[in-house]
Amino acid sequence: MTNLTDSPGVELRGLEKSFRTPHGTVGAVCGVDISIRAGEIVALLGPNGAGKSTTIDMLLGLAEPDAGSVSVLGRSPAAATLAGLVGAMLQTGSLIEDLTARELVAMVASLYPAPLDVDEVLSLVGIETIARRRTQKLSGGETQRVRFALALVSDPQLLVLDEPTTAMDVEGRRDFWETMREFASRGRTILFATHYLEEADAHADRAILMARGRVVADGPTTEIGAMVGLRTIRATLPDVERSELERLPGVAAADCHGEAVVLSCADADAAIRALLDSFPQARDIEIASAGLEQAFLELTGSAS
Amino acid sequence: MSAATYMRFELLRAFRNRRFFVFSLGFPLVLYLLIAGPNGSEDDLAGSGISARLYFMVGLTAFGTMSGVVAAGGRIALERTLGWTRQLRITPLRARAYIGTKLVTAYAFALLTTAVLYAAGIALGVRMPAGDWLGMTGLMLLGLLPFAALGIALGHTLKPDALGPAIGGTTALLAFLGGVWFPLGDGFMADVAHGLPSFWLVQASHIAVGGEGWDATGWLVMTAWTVALTAVAVRAYRRDTERG
What we know:
The complex is a heterodimer of chains A (304) and B (244).
Chain A: E1 10-21, E2 24-36, E3 41-45, H1 52-60, E4 67-72, H2 77-82, E5 86-89, H3 101-109, H4 118-124, H5 140-152, E6 158-162, H6 170-184, E7 189-194, H7 197-203, E8 206-211, E9 214-220, H8 224-227, E10 231-236, H9 242-246, E11 251-257, E12 260-265, H10 268-278, E13 283-289, H11 292-300
Parallel strand pairs in A: 3-7, 3-8, 5-6, 6-7
Antiparallel strand pairs in A: 1-2, 1-4, 8-9, 10-12, 10-13, 11-12
Chain B: H1 3-16, H2 18-36, H3 52-81, H4 84-89, H5 95-123, H6 130-143, H7 145-157, H8 160-177, H9 188-193, H10 197-203, H11 216-242
Helix pairs in contact in B: 1-5, 2-3, 2-5, 3-5, 3-7, 3-8, 3-10, 7-11
């Protein structure tokens, strides 16, 4: 489903952004580098508070970075927006009232240099039947579809979706991803944020994992498992320091509970050889695949 | 890209908003008929030299248009809370053009309010040369500028739930002190009124009795309010849109 080209995509370099709160300054994004090629479909994955939305706000020019640079399709975010190259569905937002769904889409379409046909967009997101209904009479799911239509109507080169399916039911989600794939097949660059691993796995070519304001992993979705350390080694091993275990090759993290040790491994093969070399007394060894979800939670630090 | 299409939908929205209609059209019209109707033969209201039907026609036009214009800017607050202004910031629509559409909508409504109250005034017997109608209207539209700026400043500053009382209270007070409800004559209150934009908005009616509308003080006061409130609106707008 990828149509990669050499034209510039998205380049985020050393992005930093912190917010002042009553409890002091909180770093929301702490040095993020992301490079997305034109035509890629990328999932920005991470738990709530990982810095996904703040990163997206800076990418869209809605927030000014404290440090670092943003380039969108070879331009500044403001220039890309002004040229009508970017469409986005923000995480929150309602529709203004007193217009029909169709009128609202037409109103936003009129702001762009080369918009899609309004009726084409309505049918693309499946809202032809509610086109003549006033926006204040739409259900939550219907509102989300209209918001999706607003993001698509400019026929953007880059489509940014911030947790787009949060307010959708099962059917809504299925339709949504179908439409996104249809749109992606036109060779557009798509970045979507989600905290569902399965959404990233099913709909993106590549996943970027964020946690605590940083990128903690980045790679093709087919390698998500490997990149997050798919296997764990459990063993009984008395009198060993956790730091000694973490120094072993292939080990990403180690945990000791009395005599029981648990090693989260990026490369379990290397790790087990090294473990037996250094600690021949290790026994009750067990190597298991740590479910994707578990691995994801460990990596993003939301398990603790 | 067509600003005209965007404008058309923005106007359509405003005209479909019933509350807007009731408050900026219905309310002043009914008040006018209630106040001026029974005093139809009063040709010199409280020594102002102006007939009751003309005085209240202008007074209630001023009241209706100024609350309408302030409320139009106030709608920005609602759209901000909805997240709509953020949505617009990721379109090519410039923030200035957004405010521009709000101003045009406000003035469209002000003209409608004016037309309705003029029609009611004529029905009650107000007669003037065409030039005076035009001069008076022009002066009133000019006099709405500080109120439009005030609306935009409030729209970028307040939360929607504070907006109703803020706009209602401010316009009611300004209308009262500006002499919408009765001529102020001389004295302390009149001195205060001379410093208010609402007073000069009502004074546009002096054109109708061969007067000048605004004297030098009037122009000075109106210019000062317009400049000051525009500066406040620009500040409020900048602070609002630059926030992360």
